[in-house]
Amino acid sequence: MIDLVRQISILTWKDILLDIRRKENFLSMFLFSLLTLIIFHFSIGDNPKTFRLIVPGLIWVVFLLAGILGLSKSFIQEMENGCIKALLLTPMDRGNLFLGKMLGTTLFLSLVQFITVPMFILFSGISLAHEWWMLILVMLTGTLGFTSLGTLLAGMTATLRGREVLLPILLFPLITPNLISTVKITSYIFFGGEWNEVLSWWKLLLAFDVILGVVSYLSFEFVVEE
Amino acid sequence: MTRWIKILEPLSIISLLGCAIWIFYGTPTESEMGFVQKIMYLHVPSVIVAYAAFFVVFAFSIAYLWKRDIMFDQIAKSSAEIGEVFCALVLITGAIWGKPTWGTYWVWDARLTTTLLLFLIFAGYFLLRSFTRERERAARLAAVLGIIGFLDIPIIHKSVEWWRTLHQPTTLFKVEAAEAKPAMPMELLLPLLVTMGAMLLFYVYLLLLRIQMEQQYDTLQELIANNEGG
Q1: Shortest alpha-carbon distance between residue A22 and chain B (Å)
Q2: Among B145, B164, B122, B127, which Cα is nearest to B61's?
Q3: DSSP classification of residue B142
Q4: End-to-end CA distance of chain B, in Å?
Q5: Looking at the 3D structure of chain A, how many domains does it have?
Q6: Structural domain that includes position A80
Q7: I need a labelling partner for B128 at 20 to 30 A (CA). Which of A151, B21, B34, B106 fits?
Q8: ipTM of this predicted complex?
Q9: What's the count of helices (H) and strands (E) in chain B, helices before strands?
Q10: Please, which residues 52-81 of chain B have a Cβ atom closer than 8 Å to chain A?
């Protein structure tokens, strides 16, 4: 158990350290999100009232697009400097490798979200109908589901030709339940609604996280096999 | 296997032809929807075949990862191809049926949306295969995707179902009533069930044929590789 925690934390710390040292990763992700928001605002934001209504969806669409960049970056980096070979050579359970990579990406993407989401709220002039901690909770849970499935698929496509296009094509249809429930919950936090409805979305989001997380964890070893 | 293909070939084609004749001449025209309703005999069995085919992909993907026998992958791949074709057929016949009955080719209903996503997941499955050069790796990665894709389908269905029904009044589209009427009269139900059987027979025939082709292709590739190597 202690081994497990130690291995995972070392792996996660390695990724975080890399991100701290390569500041451009974070910066590019942040700028990408901000620019996408601006592009959306110019293309469909004529009426501030209608624009406000689509902000919950917009937040997660932008997150999906930025997240794809973050995921492929995390694995391509490993491939480029041959780090993945060294990682696979270590006497470590493949599942722990998966958890380490997943946590690293989750922390990184959450950080991006913690900065971009308040900005989205600020720019669109929304005042929250519910507590802000619920927003943090949904951001973390949504990101976790995204990264668990995403890490598996990124590991799958990292060495293939056409990985840039393959990752979103495989990820988008599979991630729909996660997307729908996070958007619904976010919209509840922004504009209010019925608690019972939101409760079922929470259950669905958690079910998605758990099922896809476990399956991804178990099948990761088949993906990185040499 | 060749023997089974030879038996199934005339059997499935004759039974499908027989069903077609029965559907057009032997079954009564449904009172509400009229002649269009006959597309149900193509639509519903296609759904069954598509889901059965994807279940076969799921089962043989697990079998492949477990036993690493390339034949399991050949079965999964062949079944996925047939499933994809039938899935497309479901979407097309659904649109043709939807226009006169609901007044529109497409509604974002739970079943339609799930089928579309299923189609797209397995479109990605083929793309993944074609982007992977090595045979063994293609089999391994596709197996993982086949398992995840199939397991994700119930969650996707649940989510799009709630997404539709929690916010939209369901009375707007009577989608549920059009497809699965619990009290379908016997003279409509019986031909439907028989067509389903014929369609499944046809699926098995196509599957065996496709597996045989796949095996021949793999053998050919091996021969070419050996020839080049030696």
Answers
A1: 31
A2: B145
A3: H
A4: 32
A5: 1
A6: 2-225
A7: B106
A8: 0.89
A9: 7, 0
A10: 65
